[in-house]
């Protein structure tokens, strides 16, 4: 190692150590949209990273499924942009526009009895034991605006994709 400059390998190793520290405290919760062996749809699933064991675990109650890091292809969280109420409050829009103008009208119309839940779909892409590309989907609900993921969602998504990229480190690609 140089006195002031790190090689690219040293920088990558340092970043990987930082990522592993972050992975230990990061998890994602959602409701599976399909059965996952002993884990059924509608149950709450926690996806937790285990960097020391190089795996993630999907846990619901006493049921748990492990997936090795080297089979993870990617993870994304996208908004479904649907409100749980399914209706717009006309009264809220009128009051909101009277007090705060056009922007208040839009926000007031969406504030239906405080039940402004945003559905997010978390998609885990992985490789099966047979080498097939598979996908697991989870619904997560948050309160707030549909255009912003929570900090925890962003962090989990970023770290999962860093894990997925590791399997391709050092490989060259042709287009």
Description:
- This protein is an alpha+beta fold.
- It has a domain at 22-82 and 116-166: PH-domain like, CATH 2.30.29.
- Helices cover 31% and strands 33% of the residues.
- The protein is built from three helices and seven strands; from the N terminus they run H-E-E-E-E-E-H-E-E-H.
- It has helices spanning 8-24, 90-110, 151-166; strands spanning 27-32, 45-50, 55-60, 63-68, 72-83, 117-127, 133-143.
- The chain has a seven-stranded antiparallel sheet, covered by helices on one side.
- The chain is globular, with a radius of gyration of 21 Å.
- The two termini are 35 Å apart.
Beta strand count: 7
The radius of gyration over CA amounts to 21 Å
* CATH C-level of one domain: Mainly Beta
What's the number of helices? 3
Sequence-ordered SSE layout with sheet pairings:
Elements: H1 8-24, E1 27-32, E2 45-50, E3 55-60, E4 63-68, E5 72-83, H2 90-110, E6 117-127, E7 133-143, H3 151-166
Antiparallel strand pairs: 1-2, 1-7, 2-3, 3-4, 5-6, 6-7
Keywords:
seven-stranded antiparallel beta sheet; PH-domain like; alpha+beta
